[in-house]
Write a structure and sequence with these properties.
This protein is of the alpha/beta class. The chain is about 25% helix and about 25% strand. It is built from 10 helices and 12 strands. May mediate the reduction of outer membrane cytochrome b5. One of its GO terms (cellular component) is mitochondrial outer membrane.
């Protein structure tokens, strides 16, 4: 979700990066493995059982047991000619306008972040979002003439049925994040979308770099999920994730699982403004030395660098975009390192 919310942290010169970051390389990827399981295993087991019993069925055809077995098979296995119905989408874009979603669950994540689950209008619906896209949220404060509008990127799967999840960090002067944190189950939120971002397709780039600050991790997570959920997509991914403290690192467990499952294709580097004494990662803001060390080099073929974070980080790394449709000029560290505007996308 792109939680495009401003951070209040000040940016200072990055501290030297430890040598361990400079020598880290991709390991050998396991022969198999996926970060998430599916229901296909049960289907395969059921199919195998059906095939194993096929010989007996032919010999006993016409008996009551055989008729029951045949009926069960016909009910469980749809005819190849039966068309597959795509799930209904809650958000269809165009002239649909805003729809109201009811908050079902609130889960605290850390000292200032909550996971909010909203119900879609129908239990069998999907959100309607695609990779990469976001939604526009709206609410009108009682003391304001105009509504507050903010884009967010959900962290739930695009094919999740019946709900959509947002990871929301509250900021003292953030009207939308403060409002969302005040909601309790049963409250509603107006949303509109999807808002198209970067059109992703499998193997569009051979290697991508993701530079995120704070809740800027949410659109990166949307990309990462899509890449590693698709066995046909062989894209390599390098993530650089900056935060104030270790407790502020969002989705760390999920990112670690991906790194362990795909060590040849995914690696993550973290840097903290206020690290604990035992911290082994980077210290300070996301700086030139770290990016030069870990990102795919600008001379490589088929690379792309994505950036999302608070305005201060964006200014230092790539420059802020002018509007949703205008990426603005490429400046900052990425330009100094030799990347071109075509190689960088700002969420």
């Amino acid at each position: 979700m792109s939680l495009f919310v401003a951070s209040r942290c000040a940016f200072r010169a990055a501290a030297p990066i430890k040598r361990s970051l400079q020598t880290r390389r991709y390991a050998t990827e396991p022969a198999s493995g996926s970060p998430k399981s599916s229901g296909s295993t049960l289907a395969l087991l059921a199919g195998a059982a059906g095939l194993a019993g096929a010989g007996s069925y032919f010999f006993l055809s016409g008996t009551p047991a055989a008729k029951k077995a045949e009926a069960a098979v016909k009910e469980a296995v749809p005819s190849p000619s039966t068309p597959t119905t795509a799930p209904k989408k809650a958000l269809t874009g165009g002239d649909q306008g805003f729809i109201s979603l009811e908050l079902k669950e609130v889960t605290p994540v850390n000292h200032n972040t909550k996971l909010l689950r909203f119900a879609l209008p129908e239990e069998d619906m999907v959100s309607g979002l695609h990779i990469a896209s976001a939604v526009l949220t709206k609410f009108k404060p009682s003391d304001s003439e105009k509504p507050v509008l903010r884009p967010y990127t959900p962290v739930s799967d695009e094919d999740a049925r019946g709900h959509v999840d947002f990871l929301v960090k509250a900021y003292p002067n953030g009207p939308m994040s403060t409002h969302l944190h005040s909601l309790t189950p049963g409250a509603t939120l107006d949303v509109k979308g999807p808002l198209p971002k970067y059109p992703w397709s499998a193997n569009k780039h051979s290697h991508i770099g993701l530079i995120a600050g704070g809740t800027g991790i949410t659109p990166m997570w949307q990309l990462v999920r899509a890449i590693f959920a698709n066995p046909e997509d062989k894209t390599k991914v390098t993530l650089v994730f900056g935060n104030l403290t270790e407790e502020d690192i969002l989705l760390k467990k999920e990112l670690a699982e991906l790194e362990n499952t795909y060590p040849q294709r995914f690696r993550a580097f973290y840097t903290l403004d206020n690290p604990p004494k035992e911290w082994a990662g980077g210290k300070g803001v996301i700086g030139k030395e770290l990016l030069k060390t870990v990102l795919p080099e600008p001379k490589e073929e088929g690379i792309k660098v994505f950036v999302c974070g608070p305005p201060g980080m964006m200014n230092a790394v790539s420059g802020n975009k002018k509007s949703p449709r205008d990426q603005g000029e490429l400046v900052g560290v990425l330009k100094e390192l030799g990347y071109t505007a075509e190689q960088v996308y700002k969420f």
